[in-house]
Design a protein that fits this description.
This protein has 343 residues and is α+β, with helices and mostly antiparallel strands. It is 33% helix and 21% strand. Helix 1 (16-31) runs parallel beside helix 4.
Length: 343
Amino acid sequence: MSDEKGLSYEDAGVSIDAGDALVDRIKPMVKSTRRSGADGTIGGFGGAFDLKAAGFSDPILISGTDGVGTKLRIAIDTGRLTTVGIDLVAMCANDVLANGAEPLFFLDYYATGKLTPNNAADVVSGIAEGCRQAGCALVGGETAEMPGMYEGDDFDLAGFVVGAVERDGMLPRHDQMDGGDMLIGLESSGPHSNGYSLIRKIVERSGLSWDDKAPFADQPLAEALLTPTKLYIKPLLPLIRDNLLSGLAHITGGGLTDNTPRMLPDGLEPEFDFNAWNRPAVFKWLQETGGVAEDEMRRAFNCGIGMVLCVRPENMPEVLTRLEAAGEPAHVIGQLKRVPTCA
């Protein structure tokens, strides 16, 4: 008989014990996201949600999925892992909000070559914070340890959200849109989670290290660029439910110019006043340091506007008043105009 030791899963690079330890670490985080319709526990084979308990009578389910992109590279390289989970939730939750939906529950997928429970717990802490900000429950997820697929501390994230909206409240409402409708822009917290392959090229050109002070903020460059994506659910859901908005556009990759038309019917297009808000300093630095053309800036980045609201003129005073009361900075950034349609 051979004296060679039999192989175990651990020998192949996968630690079941590390996975179990992570689940124990994150259980309190998951519980903190409990809401009506979900009990905030994990450990089963699926996450349940009770739409009736959440108060819906005739709901349409809206789902979305997204990731964080190469913003993760900065987080991994600098060991700053506690905020990218917020980005993950925000990118998904803001998308379903654009259809008028309240985010109800969220699941994440975390894949890595070797599971480090402390790192994974930092990431999940951000996911839980994002869920609390969005008002949705973290009902489950998957942690995949895949040696040979990822090197070193590398990992990837994906997120999945399900929201609901009453059938008669879905956005966009094309029958309520017309030329002269106003576009309101809500401020972003920075680049959010888009354009980071270009951002990393610009940082490389600048010669700065991640720990150097950011030229545009009083904090290290990495921390400034890892500012998490803003969530817009809490200030906007009441406006949606009171039928004060005709449409929403989440400004992600493609910027204002490519995302805003996605909420519009044929025959209407946005007309922007790009001087209607002050562009945050981070975008000025990126443009100057990278020599980025203005048209490219408007397509690669949100340029300081993370969500666009389409509002009928008669609803403008109430919408602006309520946004101000909610502490949400808002700018009138343009309007809709009629364009000829092909016969």
